[in-house]
Amino acid sequence: MDTENLSAEQLAATIDHTLLKPEAQAFAIDQLCEEAKEHGFAAVCVNGLWVGRVAKALRGYASKPCAVVGFPLGASTPAAVAEEARIAIDQGAQEIDMVMSIGDALDENWNAVRYGIARVQQICAEIHLKVILETCLLSTEQKRRA
Asked: pTM score > 0.85 for this model?
């Protein structure tokens, strides 16, 4: 995407406003939502604990509630990540960002990587799913494969 020719509003609409720190508190999540509404960010991305609060705060606004799953380690079972996604969607997430299985990628077990993504993709049939790659841990070839 050529961002040089975008207006400030168009650029803001491409940004996921994110707070994923484990020490995040309600006031900071509320501030994140207010900033997203003010600037028109695409999404507010939070840990599962905060999804319901974000969904309620963003109701009626263009910004979407987004949850991370399998975060931050990419070391959960496919069933656990899929269940985490299902719970987040039930609580109002309109987008899911999942961490790809890092160990499987490092082992080049691409069938397991695909299976893990497919499990979450089934849950996210009606909403947007993004897969997070921990590129600092992967070789150039593994990044290409991923």
From this structure: yes
